[in-house]
Amino acid sequence: MSNASEIKRFLINEFLPDVTADQLDPDDDLLETGVIDSLQLVRVISWVTDRFGVPIEQVEFTPQNFRSVNAIQAFVETATSGAGALH
Fold first, then answer.
1. CA nearest neighbour of 35 among 6, 66, 61
2. Three-state SS sequence of 30-85
3. Going by C-beta distance under 8 Å and a sequence separation of 6 or more, which residues neighbour residue 31?
4. 54-82 confidence digits (pLDDT tens)
5. What is the CA radius of gyration of the chain?
6. Full-model pTM
7. At what angle do helices 38-52 and 69-80 cross, to 10 degrees?
8. Which of helix, strand or coil describes residue 14?
9. What are the pLDDT digits (tens) for 19-40?
10. Around Cβ 7, how many Cβ atoms within 10 Å?
11. Which DSSP letter does residue 24 get?
């Protein structure tokens, strides 16, 4: 399973139980549409750090990194590749 598929599955299970993976476009703005609010963003960040081993102390988390499935996937790839902090 790709990171994008796993991210979609998590978002659907946690925040969108009536949506299928096909219905969630990987570029949908999760913050603008209200799928994720500030408290839910903390849950997503916690899940990402736990699931993908992103070292929280070495990465600057910004809402831009969590706007969409694709943004989260790019964040995970960069953070786990040793490329350094994301802004």
1. 66
2. CCCCCCCCHHHHHHHHHHHHHHHCCCHHHCCCCHHHHCCHHHHHHHHHHHHCCCCC
3. 37, 41, 63, 66, 67
4. 887 767 778 899 999 999 999 999 888 86
5. 12
6. 0.86
7. 40
8. helix
9. 999 999 999 999 999 999 989 9
10. 27
11. S
